[in-house]
Specification:
The protein is an alpha/beta fold. Helices cover 50% and strands 13% of the residues. The strands form 2 sheets. The protein has a 6-stranded parallel sheet with strand order 5-4-1-6-7-8, with helices on both faces. Strands 2-3 form a two-stranded antiparallel sheet.
């Protein structure tokens, strides 16, 4: 076991959800509340990569606080009836980590209740800790607060933790917390994202198998 604790992002790291759920939900929201506006899947990935989803909504679509609340509720209603599939090989990594006495945690911009549902539906072990969108904004990634809470809860040193994420907020959080970061490159083939991750991240994995071999 290379790391005592693996911290997984959820969407597009553990489960294939942006292309199948979150982007379609956002398009449906725009059709209803911002008719005439749209967003390609590539732009959705890029804006979530940087500057982030909330910033995209405000800067690109002029959403107010009330609009953001409406969008969140619309998204929550949508995901209730849409369960993403785990990437093949991810459940096996998690089960092996737990069976060897390690920890599996989640830091995500999805809601905890949906993360738990997705883990159960895909046969993944229940995470030891989850920090999701219900956390106050100052406790969400890219803030390092979730990583520091995990370190305190399990008496871990930074070198015992690997953060696995497909987007820049996870990279920024890991860098601030001083823990190793592995970029998950299996969700998309968008050149600006892959180029940034390959250039800046200590580890970049294009396939789940590469990650599995690394953490073994």
């Amino acid at each position: 076991m290379r790391y005592r604790c693996l911290i997984f992002d959820h969407d597009d790291t553990a489960v294939n959800s942006t292309a199948t759920i979150h982007h379609p939900a956002f398009l449906a929201f725009l059709r209803k509340y911002f008719p005439g506006r749209t967003c390609t899947l590539e732009d959705y990935f890029l804006k979530n990569f940087e500057p982030g989803f909330i910033e995209m909504c405000v800067d690109e679509y002029g959403m107010t606080d009330r609009d953001l609340e409406t969008e969140t509720n619309f998204w929550l209603d949508y995901v209730k009836n849409h369960v993403p599939e785990a990437y093949p090989g991810i459940p096996e990594i998690m089960h092996r980590q737990k069976s060897e006495g390690g920890y599996v945690c989640v830091v995500s911009h999805s809601m905890k209740v949906n993360i738990l549902r997705d883990y159960r539906a895909n046969g993944m072990p229940e995470p030891d800790l989850i920090f999701g969108w219900e956390e106050p904004p100052e406790h969400r990634k890219p803030n390092a607060w979730p990583v520091r809470k995990i370190m305190a809860e399990f008496s871990l040193q930074p070198e015992e933790i690997l953060m696995i994420d497909d987007l820049k907020p996870g990279y920024d959080m890991a860098r601030e917390a001083g823990v190793d970061f592995a970029a998950a490159g299996w969700a998309n083939d968008i050149e600006p994202i892959e180029s940034f991750m390959r250039s800046n991240c200590r580890y970049y994995f294009k396939t789940v198998r590469e990650l599995a071999d690394f953490v073994r």
